[in-house]
Amino acid sequence: MAMKVASIRVHPVKSTAIRRVETAEVGFAGLRGDREWMVVDATGEMVSARVLPELFTITASTRSTGGTTADLRLEAPDMPAIELAHPVDGAEDVRLFGKKHLLARPVGAEADTWIRAALGREDLSLVWCDDPTRRRLTLGREGDHAAFQDGYPVTVLSSESVAQVNEWICEAALERGEPVPEPITADRFRPNLLVDGVHAPFAEDAWERIRIGEAILRKAKLVDRCVMTTIDPTDLSRGKDPIRTLARHRRWDGATWLAVHFIPETPGAVRIGDPITLM
After folding, report:
1. How far apart are the C-alpha atoms of 168 and 254, rounded to whole Å?
2. Res. 104: pLDDT tops 90
3. Which of 2, 16, 135, 185 has its CA 20 to 30 A from that of 49?
4. Is 10 exposed, middle or buried (0-12, 13-18, 19+ CB in 10 A)?
5. Interval 5-34 mean pLDDT
6. Closest Cα partner for 78 from 57, 55, 60?
């Protein structure tokens, strides 16, 4: 079976609900519309679903995802939808993981009031990445940049790798005399591009340079996984997997690993069904 794109995922506001699309434009900062907006606390620190899983319940739409003609539309349970425009001025210092300092534009009081009501915290604000070229990447070349992605612009994962993780989870449950759990989906790992047809689980680890559709991507690093993967994005329940299982089979250098970060070299459109070519 040929390697191909199985699913394309965009996350307009960092840590909000996954938006699946049929096609996407890959720019130098990642998929167009991906993680260009972010929720921060009163100090400017990123607030993600690691600490506030309720972010998963917010659905964000843009022109890239469809469903709105506004720059951003937000929906959440028991909340009226709100449509927002890109802010045209203002700048504030924001941080990712307490150390990556970036400039962003505050979206404004209307957006902040909505976010605070939806998430039940009065210290939250919404910001927009107006210029991703200001951000330099640790393992990037001169000019490489990203918006509010954790590390690098595009994340790629294979269905075969997810299937292997689930097989390991089932084996471990049987060893412990526990019921076999429901399979964990790729949603736990929030890849931008989920691919099918690789020759073996984790084959993507070795991909150094790939062509997908019109885009050419260069490997930055493997993705070290965090506690956010242990939160079910549908019901917000928490468990020990997949981190427990990854720690058993995919742990080195003090971290657990799954999926690969890539940096775009050549922008262009990607579509479901596009073949993946190793270069």
Report:
1. 20
2. yes
3. 135
4. buried
5. 98
6. 57
Q: Per-residue confidence at 101, pLDDT binned at 50, 70, 90?
A: confident
Judge if the upstream peptide bond of residue 242 is cis by omega within 30 degrees of 0: yes
Q: Which of 229, 219, 217 is nearest to 277 (CA)?
A: 217
Domain count, the chain: 1
Closest among 179, 191, 194, 184 to 237, alpha carbons compared: 184
Question: Letter for the amino acid at 246?
Answer: L
From 66-80, 95-109, 155-169, 249-263, the region with the lowest mean pLDDT: 95-109
Task: 133-139: list long-range contacts, CB under 8 Å, 24+ apart.
Answer: 133/29, 134/102, 134/103, 135/100, 135/102, 137/220, 137/263, 139/220, 139/221
Q: Enter the pTM of the model.
A: 0.96
CA distance 55 to 76: 9
Q: How far is CA 136 from CA 131, 133, 139, 149, 191, in A?
A: 12, 7, 9, 12, 21
